[in-house]
Amino acid sequence: MAGEGQMLQAAREEKQWSYTYTEEITKIRIRYIKALEEEKYEILPGTTYVKGYLRTYAKQLGLNSDEIIALYNSSAMPDTIPVLESPNRLVKDRPLWIRPALIGGVAVLAIMLVIAISALSQSGKKQVASPYAPAALPTAPQAEKTTPAPTVPVVPNPADVPATTQDGLTVQLVFTQLCWIEVRVDGQPSWQAEFKAGTSKEVKGTDKIELVKVGNAGGLTGTLNGKTLPVLGKSGEVVNNVVLTKDYLNQL
Asked: CA-CA distance, 128 to 136, in Å (whole number)?
């Protein structure tokens, strides 16, 4: 293996991303993420998909995508073109007596063909030609290669992000700056992740949702069951133990 798979896996583990979270961020199926990290490219649909997924995965992890593609190209097996070999057998000459019989057969077939064409032309005169003529199919336009313009992340307003209606608690977290959080839902083991500016995350619970730790509290806004949460802190400030319950919801 060339090593691009180990680089992807090491970068993901360094960020402490689970496969489920990585699938959500990259929009690549977990089955294909594992195939990229293990360099089992035969699992993917084709070379085009492999390079596209490698480039997307590398960019999301903050790696040099050109370097990852170069490593893949160095290990990829070139497509082989099958070579057709001419047969070594010699074609034997047919006996001379076959040729007259063959010519006679061809002549009989030609006469029968003339008779058939004549009969069809006579019957065709009695039929009215259909005015319908199928339209020619348009040719597909050739795709032009264009360089996409750089995109600027759009920070959504927490009030504009819909929260799923359900029995329990639904927190819609909106990140206006790079932010790291640790979350625990209903006493279950906590999870942690880093979110970029312009992204959002929905968290659902039954009785309690805890923001165990919020790094850069000024870069996080959100709603609880559709109600806007108060500002948690200033930019760069670390906030601990923000507990969201139904009683807290009633106070909003």
From this structure: 23
Which pLDDT tens digit goes with each residue over 127-177? Answer: 444 454 555 555 554 555 555 555 555 555 655 545 444 589 998 989 999
**CA-atom Rg of the chain in angstroms:** 34
Distance CA(2)–CA(55), nearest Å, equals 16
Q: Is the pLDDT of residue 232 over 80?
A: yes
Q: What CATH number matches the domain at 4-75, 3.40.50.1820, 3.40.190.10, 1.10.260.40, 1.10.3720.10? A: 1.10.260.40
Beta carbons of 190 and 208 less than 8 angstroms apart: no
Q: Where in the chain is the domain with CATH 1.10.260.40?
A: 4-75
Q: Is the pTM of this model over 0.85?
A: no
